[in-house]
Specification:
The complex is a heterodimer of chains A (213) and B (52). Chain A is mostly helical. Chain A has 5 helices and no strands. Chain A is elongated and about 80 Å long. By secondary structure, chain B is mainly α. The chains are: A mainly alpha (213), B mainly alpha (52).
């Protein structure tokens, strides 16, 4: 294993920085992309953009859930609680609930166009709230997280760049993996939609709604 | 139960917490695997629908 900075409470668990923060970075990039596709949908009205936006949000939530679990495990051994009362963790909880509400909102509409339009507006709003909750507010108050609430970040301990050398490629790698999973889901959804349409067309051909006179 | 958790926590803390890293890696990999397996089952369902 490569050498890492020796810190009193963290010890070897500082290696979690190679996994836990990249999950959040990947999540943020995917949510930003999702918001961009929602804006694109509102501007152009292509349902394909709405599909991309929802699938990006879906994968982002996977990364968010994994970020929460890995953070909880790390917090349990470093800070002594699975969910410490910290502005960043609480902000994350609120953000995740907001995005879960986005999926519930989508499932409550039958009309495809209405669902796409209203959920696109909600998605943009959710992203606009997500950024202050996760990046700005924790920096303004006391926080356990490094780099927040006046705490020094890991950069100040990483004089030999042993963390940066791994964490930066990890940011790129995790994000690319997220996009790869998303494109799999998008292609699958497109195929499902096409199959639904062709099955519907077959049914209509077999049982025409208008009876012959 | 809580005593057992306390003992486990102490034991894991004493050895430099490398186990925490192992647990975190396992969580990340299992999460991705579960998600990809779910996509795989959706592909299987789609294949069955096409065959029908």
């Amino acid at each position: 294993m490569s050498p890492v900075p020796r810190l009193p409470i963290l010890h070897e668990s500082i290696r979690n920085t190679f996994f836990h923060p990249p999950l959040w970075i990947a999540m943020m990039v995917m949510l930003l992309s999702s918001a961009i596709f929602s804006v694109r949908y509102l501007l152009k009205g292509h349902l394909g953009d709405d599909l991309i936006a929802v699938e990006l949000a879906n994968t982002a939530i996977l990364f968010g859930v994994l970020g929460c679990i890995t953070g909880s495990v790390w917090a349990f051994f470093a800070w002594g609680a699975l969910w410490p009362n910290d502005p960043k963790t609480n902000g994350v909880a609120v953000s995740m609930l907001m995005y879960l509400a986005y999926f519930i909102l989508r499932s409550s509409f039958d009309d495809e166009l209405r669902r796409a339009r209203i959920s696109a507006v909600y998605n943009i709003f959710a992203f606009a709230v997500f950024i202050p909750l996760i990046l700005i507010l924790p920096r303004l108050t006391d926080s356990l997280h490094p780099g927040n609430g006046g705490n020094p970040g890991f950069n100040s301990y990483d004089s030999d760049h042993s963390i940066k050398m791994i964490i930066r490629p990890a940011f790129v790698g995790f994000t690319l993996l997220g996009f790869w999973i998303t494109q799999l889901r998008i292609r699958l959804r497109r195929l499902e939609n096409k199959l639904d349409e062709s099955e519907e067309a077959q049914k209509t051909a077999a049982f025409p709604t208008e009876l012959p006179h | 139960m809580y005593q057992l958790i306390d003992l486990l926590t102490k034991a894991l803390r004493e050895d430099g917490k490398i186990w925490v890293v192992t647990v975190v890696v396992a969580v990340v990999l299992l999460g991705w695997l579960y998600y990809l397996l779910r996509i795989g089952s959706r592909v299987n369902k789609l294949q069955l629908r096409i065959k029908r």
